[in-house]
Amino acid sequence: MTDVTGAACALPAAPAAETPSERTWQGPGAQARFALLRSARSIALVGASDNPARASYFVGTYLLSSSPYEVYFVNPRAETILGRPAYASLADLPVVPDIVDVFRRHDDLPSVAEEAVAVGASTLWLQLGSWHEGAAAVAEEAGLSVVMDRCVKIEHARFHGGLHLAGFDTGVVSAKRQQLSRPAGL
After folding, report:
1. What is the rounded CA–CA span in Å between residue 33 and residue 35?
2. Do residues 86 and 74 lie in contact, with contact meaning Cβ atoms separated by under 8 Å?
């Protein structure tokens, strides 16, 4: 989970039909992503898992401990995740989520986009390694903002001063590189 590439948040690569070289959709820039995260009050993690080895578990842990968001877990096979209730679908949530953060297989993304539209979410956010221009089109046509191939945890930490090269908050607030002390005589 200390991979600087964000592997802790990554999903399996998209099928060859949507390789990065064939991508035509342009996502929001850093300022727009910051604005989306700043205006959001709630995040639903669709495809959340109670397995600590899964990216969604890691992201959920981070969001619950290091962010101001109301976090909801969507997984029809789980009763609880991280001590919180798990919901079968977005429609079952007690609130309309501002951000729908998706941890699902590539082929499931259009139906999740349709579900996000149906519940009135503001943003469809597809995790690292997840890219589906058809799902993005569904969401954008309904007025949702769309972010793809980005990790909510990494983006939140990045914009709030908590991202170290390893992806963790070091607790040091300085632009100066830290020097390691050496024992005397070396």
Report:
1. 5
2. yes
Cα–Cα distance between 117 and 97 in angstroms, integer? Answer: 11
CB 149 within 8 A of CB 133: no
Three-class DSSP category at 41: coil
Whole-model pTM above 0.85? no
Does domain 28-159 fall into CATH 3.40.50.720? yes
Domains of the chain, by residue range, sit at 28-159
CB 119 within 8 A of CB 93: yes
- C-alpha 108 chain-centroid distance: 16
Nearest CA-CA partner of 57 in 124, 153, 121? 153
Q: Which amino acid is at 84?
A: R
pLDDT digits (tens, 9 = 90+) for 49-66: 999 999 999 999 999 999
Task: Say which residue the tokens 């993690």 belong to.
Answer: 45
